[in-house]
Prior knowledge:
Cytidine Deaminase, domain 2, 6-stranded mixed β-sheet, 6 strands, metalloprotease, metalloexopeptidase activity
Amino acid sequence: MPSWSEALDxxxxxxxxxxxxxxxxxxxxxxxxxxxxxxxxxxxxDARAARTAYAFEPREWLGVLQEAxxxxxxxxxxFHSHVExxxxxxxxxxxxxxxxxxxxxxxxxxxxMAIPSGRVRAAELVxxxxxxxxxxPLPGRFFSRQPAEIP
Length: 151
């Protein structure tokens, strides 16, 4: 049963492996206290666009939703990286997450990780407060680990 920190480790590995393009995916969970499951998704945008944006491939996204439903899971968090700039929720992130000013995925958080030079340096968990998205920085201890080749 993966913990939050184990799921974050998987998120970091996926997003760093996607660099220099934005990576993306979701964190799934069974209920409010169940284990976390990281489900990486392919960025469906072409290489030029994927340096500054992400999009789920619709068939893959549908498959994840069906898989989660079968396992009694819910999408708890959508994650993606910013390969340029900080981990803050960008204007484009807001437009995509709340078209027309209302959340597309109510109750779902967003995790944005800044990955300059291919390594996660900062992260922000973003949640809808009823009027807008508010970000909360995550502690750096999740991102200061050694490279995989060093035990």
